[in-house]
């Protein structure tokens, strides 16, 4: 009989990729903000005040506000904010007639 072939496999295949405690969408938001601010204020002498301080503040806010939240919290929150204000489980009604109302007493 031939020997059973064994290959090492990672134990956490579903684990989210984290870099320094941030998820990838979080890092994209932080670095996008940093690059836009660097494009606008990079040539000034107060680069640290207009580029680095807001980016570091945004990173700290994201880090502390997402504590205890599920994975992809920002992505789901943005999708919720973009969708229409009223979510309905059913399609629009096919008939346009309003439902019947009870007869109101007429005051004479």
Question: Low-confidence segments, ≥5 residues, pLDDT <50?
Answer: none
Count every beta strand, where a strand is a DSSP E run of 2 or more residues.
2
Strands of the widest sheet, in order across it, are: 1-2
Euclidean distance between termini CA atoms: 102 Å
Structural class: mainly alpha
Order of helices and strands: EEHHH
Tally of alpha and pi helices: 3
Helicity, in percent?
Answer: 40-55%
Q: Mean pLDDT across all residues, rounded? A: 83
Strand content of the residues, in percent? Answer: under 5%
Radius of gyration: 27 Å
Structure explained in plain terms:
This protein is mainly alpha-helical. The protein has a domain at 18-82. Helix content is 44%, strand content 4%. The chain contains 3 helices and 2 strands. It has helices at residues 24-41, 47-65, 73-82; strands at 18-19, 22-23. It has a two-stranded antiparallel ribbon with strand order 1-2. Helix 1 packs antiparallel against helix 2. The protein starts with 17 loop residues before the first strand and ends in a 26-residue tail after the last helix. The model has no long low-confidence stretch (mean pLDDT 83).
